[in-house]
TrEMBL record:
Pfam families: ERCC4 (PF02732). It comes from Blautia obeum. One of its GO terms (biological process) is DNA metabolic process. Residues 21-161 form the ERCC4 domain. This is ERCC4 domain-containing protein. The lineage of its organism: Bacteria, Bacillati, Bacillota, Clostridia, Lachnospirales. GO terms for molecular function: DNA binding; nuclease activity. Gene3D superfamilies: 3.40.50.10130.
């Protein structure tokens, strides 16, 4: 479905791009503020997998006869901190394996991203998180899921999270349908 678009048509296509925000993602005020400030279109929708996705609103003049969802091509999972992710991994020991079910659903999605807000890899290694989870076990689990799901993991400052989500969606759009 790759096509060539002139700059004018590309800008028009971007105007039809809508970032999908999962209805369960509650702590995203700064992200939505960034979207609104930069006139990035978004809407809430119950997503099967991940916190953010991508769609193109119908624009027949550009070849999209109906709303087109890219939920099989892109999944963005966001965590507020390394502590939240460590807690998710620790909960598996308490028979709460939601994070692994989420990651398993991501296996068949072409592009997977795990965005961790504010922290960095050093916070895992130095055990700078609220959990009894051993840092080596934490890091191994993260690397295992990264490899298994072909997942891209980024540590992103809170003030840049909206921009990062937007650029990931735009990049997915570029690689899926352009040139």
């Amino acid at each position: 479905m790759k096509q060539y678009y002139t700059d004018k048509h590309y800008k028009e296509l971007l105007s039809h791009m809508i970032i999908l925000v999962d209805t369960r993602d509650q702590t995203n005020g700064a992200i939505l503020e960034w979207f609104n400030k930069h006139k990035v279109r978004w809407k809430t929708k119950a997503l099967k997998t991940g916190d953010y996705g991508l769609m193109i609103e119908a624009c027949p003049e550009l070849g999209f006869l109906t709303d087109t969802y890219f939920t099989d091509e892109l999944c963005i999972e966001r965590k507020n901190s390394v502590s939240e992710l460590a807690g998710n991994f620790s909960n598996v020991l308490k028979d709460d394996d939601r994070i692994f079910k989420e990651f398993n659903r991501m296996i068949n999605i072409e592009r997977n991203f795990l965005l961790i807000e504010n922290d960095n890899i050093g916070d895992i290694i130095d055990r700078n998180y609220r959990s009894k989870l051993n840092p080596d076990s934490f890091l191994r689990a993260l690397l295992t899921w990264q490899h298994r799901n072909n997942m891209h993991i980024y540590f992103v400052p809170k003030e840049h999270m909206g921009k990062m989500i937007y650029e990931i969606c735009k990049n997915c759009l570029d690689s899926k349908i352009l040139r």
